[in-house]
């Protein structure tokens, strides 16, 4: 699925600044769809004790048929730690993924946006949340 990298339907702090925060965020968010959502609620999930939220979010994503909405470029928020050796070859480390999905309610209720993050950034968590 090819990402849409422009005209994000989100409002960012510093939006009036030309080339400021908005341009930076456009580079950090890959938008895959522009669904028309009805008063969406958002469920955010990161790993934690027992990975309960990740298990529940992944179950909902599969069971209800959520569709891919967007993902966040991880290299700005996460630093690669360690190395990966596979079959005696050093491979590039994998960054954690942070993805958004959406589900449209077939009835009159609210739609849902689901965020699943593989890891929580150590130093840039506030920036990621904004």
From TrEMBL:
This is Proteasome assembly chaperone 2. It comes from marine sediment metagenome. SUPFAM superfamilies: Cgl1923-like (SSF159659). It holds the Pfam family PAC2.
């Amino acid at each position: 699925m090819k990402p849409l990298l422009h005209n994000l339907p989100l409002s960012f702090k510093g939006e009036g600044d030309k080339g400021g925060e908005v341009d930076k965020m456009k580079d950090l968010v890959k938008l895959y769809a522009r669904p028309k959502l009805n008063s969406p609620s958002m469920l955010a999930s990161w790993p934690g004790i027992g990975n309960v939220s990740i298990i529940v979010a992944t179950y909902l994503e599969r069971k209800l048929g959520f569709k891919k909405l967007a993902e966040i470029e991880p290299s700005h928020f996460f630093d690669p730690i360690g190395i990966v050796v596979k079959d005696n070859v050093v491979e590039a480390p994998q960054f954690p993924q942070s993805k958004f999905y959406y589900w449209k309610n077939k009835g009159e209720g609210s739609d849902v946006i689901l965020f699943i993050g593989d890891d929580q950034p150590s130093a840039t968590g506030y920036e990621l949340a904004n």
